[in-house]
Amino acid sequence: MRMSLNIQILIGVILGIVLGMVLAALGPDSESGKQGIYICGLIGGVFMDTLKMVLTPLVFASIAVGVANLRQHSRMDKVWKATLGFFLLSMAIAVMVGLGASNLFEPGKGLSLALFQSARQGFTVKQMSFAEFIAEFLHGLFLNPFTALVQGNILAIVVFAMLLGIALVQGGERYRNVLQLLQEGLEIMLRMVGWIMRLSPYGIMALLAKLVVSQNPALLGSLIKFVAVVLGTTLLHGFVLLPLLLFMFTGISPLRFFRGAREAMVIAFTTSSSSATMPVTLRCVEQHLHVKPGIAGFVVPLGATMNMDGTALYEAAAALFVANLAGIELDLSRQLIVFFTAMVAAVGAPGMPSAGMVTMVMVLQSVGLPTEAIAILLPIDRLLDTFRTMVNVEGDMIGSLVVQRWTSETGSKGSGS
Ligand code: ASP
Fold first, then answer.
1. Distance from the CA of 99 to the center of ligand 1, in angstroms?
2. pLDDT for 240-253, tens place per residue?
3. Closest ligand 1 atom, CA of 310?
4. 118 pLDDT exceeds 50?
5. CA–CA dist 310, 95 (Å, integer)
6. pTM for the full predicted model
7. Which one-letter DSSP state was computed for residue 289?
8. Fewer CB atoms < 10 Å away: N or C end of the chain?
9. Does the CB atom of residue 40 touch ligand 1 within 6 A?
10. What is the mean pLDDT of residues 122-130?
11. What per-residue confidence (pLDDT) applies to 414?
C-alpha cells in the first residue's frame, strides 16, 4: 500500500508538470486554459483545505502530549536545549551559505534599474521596524487559546500547548484522563492524515500544474541569476549540507533519510506551507523514520513555525540581491545585521505560503534597503517558495532525528503508528 502511494505521488508530480506545460501552451488566457487553471486551483485548494482542517487539533494535541511525555522521562530540559541548539546551528549555516553565494556571484548587479523602478510603483507593503517586529512577535506568543485555535495561530497554539503539557505532568496522576484524551485525539488525527494522503497524488498534480502555468517567463528571465543562486544554494543546503549534518550527528545515511522523508518533502514543495505539511511531516518522522512520539511531537510542530533553513537562506540572499539592485554596498557589519535579522525573520515567519515575504521587509529595513523591492521578489516567490519550504520541512525532520540522538530518548508510546 505504501509503495503504491509513493508511485502514485510520483505520477502525480510528472502529470502535474506536463499538465502545467500543456495549459501554458494552450495559453493561460484562452478559454480552455482558464478552465484548466480554475479546475486545478479548485482541486489543489481543496487538498490544502483538508490538510489545514486537521492542522490545529493536531498541533495542539501533539505538542501537549509531546511535552507531557518528555517530562515523564525527565528529559524535557535536554530535548528543549538540543532542539533550539540544532535549529540555530542549521539556520546559521543556511544564512552563511546564502550570504557567501550572494557575495560570490553578486546577482542583481547587471539588472536594469528601470525594471526596479517600474516594479516598485504601485506596490505598498506594511512598514515594520525591527523593534516593532519584536514587539508584535512577543505579543503574538500569548493568546487566548480559543482565539488561537479559531484563528489557526500556530505559534500561540504551540506556546499554550507547551504550558498545558507541563501542567499535565506537574499534576501527574490527577490529570491522567486529560492526557489520555489528548493522546487518543492525536492518534485519531494521524489516522485522518492517512486518509488525506490517499488523496495527495491528485492534490499534488493540480497544485503543480497551476504553479507551472502561472510563472511569468519574461520576468523570470531577467531574474534568472538570482533565481539560480537561490535555488542552487537552497538545494546545496538541502541535499548536501543538511544530510551531512545528519550523517555526522547520527550516522544515518542520506538515502535512508530521503526514503522516509520524501512524502513530506513533496507535499511541502507543492503546498509551500510548512504548517499545512506538518501532519505529513509528523507521519514521516514517526512512522517512517522511527522517531519516538515524545521527540517528534515536540520538535516537528515547533520546527514547522520556527526552524526555517530555506527561508533564512533566502532572506539573506534576497537582501544582498536588493542591495545590488539599489547599488548599495553592504559592508561586513551590515552583513552581520543581515545575518541576525534573516534568522529572526525566518523564526518569525509562520509556515504559510510566501510568509517569508512579509518578514523580508524587516530584513531590508534593518540595513536601510528600499522595501519597495519586495515587488520585484514577489513574482518569483511562488517558484522559490516551493524549494525553500521543502528544505524547511526537511530541516525539521533531520532536527527530530538529531535531537533523538543527542538526547538518546527512550520515549514512550504517545501516538499510534
Ligand atoms: N512558505 C514557507 C514555509 O511554509 C515560509 C516562507 O515563506 O519562507 O515554510
1. 19
2. 999 999 999 999 99
3. 8
4. no
5. 9
6. 0.75
7. S
8. N
9. no
10. 50
11. 38
In a domain, 381, yes or no: yes
Q: Is the pLDDT of residue 116 over 80?
A: no
Whether the predicted pLDDT of 126 surpasses 60: no
Q: What is the pLDDT of residue 221?
A: 57
Is the CB–ligand 1 distance for residue 273 below 6 Å?
yes
Distance from the CA of 250 to the center of ligand 1, in angstroms?
A: 27
More confident residue, 352 or 279: 279
Q: Which three cell numbers stand for residue 5?
A: 502511494
* Integer CA distances (angstroms), 246 to 90, 167, 284, 400, 404, in order: 11, 33, 16, 10, 11
On the 0-12 / 13-18 / 19+ scale of CB atoms within 10 A, 121 is: exposed
Q: Which of 130-144, 191-205, 341-355 has the highest mean pLDDT?
A: 191-205
Mutate to test the pocket of ligand 1, among 51, 154, 272 (most ligand atoms within 8 A of CB): 272
Residue 375 within a domain: yes
272 lines ligand 1 (CB under 6 A): yes
Range with top average pLDDT, 189-198, 248-257, 406-415: 248-257
Instruction: Say which CATH number the domain at 339 has.
Output: 1.10.3860
The Cα 197–Cα 391 span in angstroms is 20
Q: What is the pLDDT of residue 132?
A: 74
Name the residue at shortest CA distance from atom 3 of ligand 1: 351
Question: How distant is the alpha carbon of residue 84 from its chain centre?
Answer: 16
Distance from the CA of 245 to the center of ligand 1, in angstroms?
22
How many angstroms separate the alpha carbon of residue 350 from the centre of ligand 1?
7
Mutate to test the pocket of ligand 1, among 314, 388, 394 (most ligand atoms within 8 A of CB): 388
Is residue 227 domain-resident?
yes
CA distances from 381 to 117, 144, 295, 332, 386 (A): 19, 33, 33, 27, 8
- The domain of 264 spans 5-406
With cut-offs at 50, 70 and 90, classify the pLDDT of residue 110. Answer: low
Residue 415 located in a structural domain:
no
Q: Which of 48, 306, 315, 354 to mutate to test the pocket of ligand 1 (most atoms within 8 A of CB)?
A: 354
